[in-house]
Design brief:
alpha+beta, Arylsulfatase, C-terminal domain, 13 helices, 17% strand, flat
Length: 428
């Protein structure tokens, strides 16, 4: 047993002592107002007269679209395993962890489903959690990674390390056995006197912060629209009569007669008795603002998640993100996806590949950042070398980026000696 394994076993013994103590369980009194567990037990955050939780938030089309877009984009990216070379270069290698990250992290689900769940947890609750299952107590080999619902995990600090209390199994796991994919910042620490532990190691939940009002207003607007245009909507017109006063029975008779006359054909001309006329009801100024409110909330939700509005079907003001759709797509990768990818990469490298620092993983985003064909080929010509300038790409490197097989002699780097071709070498 090496020093790292010995340290891991010592931490396990410390955790088990906590588990076996009387203070291992989290009492109901720890569900203080403002905590994730409290909001979950009480239905969620109330805003704009509606309850906002993960289920109700996903009924808002803008929130659903943003979460689906980001989670789906990350889930579609390959995660190669690289080995550092002595010359500071990298080489893609076959590694056992590769299958867990790209094919099947857990026996019951595939990699794409796993990453969509993790990103959805991050985008709604602020954190994504996954349990690292090892081959045995004395064998640190990783066999699977199990995603955990963020509301079922409570981070807490023991000494100089983080531990994670699993509410549904009543276990406390060391930080080496939990992948914690954080969002932005940390929430407000909560001191539990009974446990003598300090909580506050969760990321800020978008549902409690950024989406508290924007998402609540959007949800309320959706519900109002459904009622407005549904059975609870305003009538399109009223029937006026010259009679001084109608009894309730007469009103009902006129309503039923009109309904029977029009029936299922709204274009069928109606016939009114003498002394009756129709008066159309127009929308009030408040009702007319409903559409504008819904459009603003789409932009507000897109702003919170860092998504170009056109990517979720909102085509207004797309020029603010660049000169074209291509520029906006590349900006989405650089300024939105990248902030999620870097945190995920760092957590994977230190928890899954920490025993072998010469190996590391990194999301491959080249497919999302590819420009148009002309711009891409012009860049290749510069990289291969032209007009006497030395190149920094080989033909086979270019072919690899275009998913083409290598060719003989394609690994030679042009050094700028002699006259370079004015176009890409043959085979590029």
């Amino acid at each position: 047993m090496n020093k790292r394994q010995a340290a891991r076993q010592a931490r396990r013994a410390e955790r088990m002592a906590i588990v076996n103590s009387d203070s291992a369980s989290v009492p109901v009194s720890s569900m203080t107002p403002g905590s994730e567990f409290f909001e979950w037990m009480t239905g969620g955050v109330k805003s704009a007269g509606v309850i906002l939780n993960e289920k109700t938030a996903m009924t808002v089309s803008a929130i659903y679209a943003c979460v689906q877009l980001i989670a789906g984009a990350v889930a579609s990216l390959p995660i190669p395993i690289y080995q550092r070379e002595n010359d500071d270069s990298r080489q893609s290698v076959d590694h056992p962890i590769w299958r867990l990250l790209n094919i099947q992290p857990h026996p019951i689900l595939g990699a794409a489903t796993f990453w969509e769940f993790i990103l959805t947890s991050k985008l709604l609750h602020g954190d994504g959690f996954a349990r690292i299952w090892r081959k045995g107590r004395y064998n640190p080999e990783i066999v699977s990674i199990e995603p955990l619902h963020p509301l079922a995990v409570q981070p807490l600090r023991v000494g100089d390390r983080l531990c994670y209390y699993l509410m549904y199994t009543n276990e406390i796991l060391d930080q080496d056995d939990i992948l914690h994919f954080t969002g932005i910042g940390y929430d407000i620490p909560i001191v539990n006197p009974k446990l003598a532990k300090v909580y506050g190691y969760r990321s800020m939940s978008p549902l409690k912060y950024a989406l508290r009002y924007a998402g609540g207003i959007a949800l309320a607007a959706d519900q109002f629209s459904a009622n407005f245009f549904g059975d609870g909507s305003k009538p399109e017109f009223v029937i006026k009569t010259e009679a001084a006063k109608l009894t309730d029975e007469q009103k009902t008779t006129i309503q039923n007669a009109w309904r029977d006359m029009i029936g299922g054909n709204r274009f069928k001309p109606g016939v009114l008795s003498a002394g009756m006329s129709l008066q159309e009801l127009t929308l009030t100024a408040e009702d007319a603002q409903l559409v504008a409110t819904r459009q603003f909330q789409v932009e507000d939700v897109a702003r919170i998640y860092g998504v170009p509005p056109f990517m979720i079907g909102h085509t207004a003001n797309t020029s603010s993100w660049g000169t074209g759709v291509e520029s906006m797509g590349i900006g989405f990768v650089k300024y939105t996806l990248q902030r999620h990818l870097v945190k995920i990469e760092q957590e994977l490298n230190r928890k899954l590949l920490g025993d072998t620092p010469e190996y590391f993983c990194e999301f491959l985003t080249a497919g999302l950042e590819r420009g148009d064909t002309k711009g891409r080929f012009d860049a290749y010509r510069v990289g291969l070398g032209r007009a006497g300038e030395p190149g920094f790409l080989t033909v086979n490197e270019v072919r690899r980026r275009e998913n083409l097989p290598p060719i003989e002699g394609g690994d030679v780097l042009f050094k700028g000696t002699g006259d370079a071709p004015t176009s890409a070498p043959d085979g590029a």
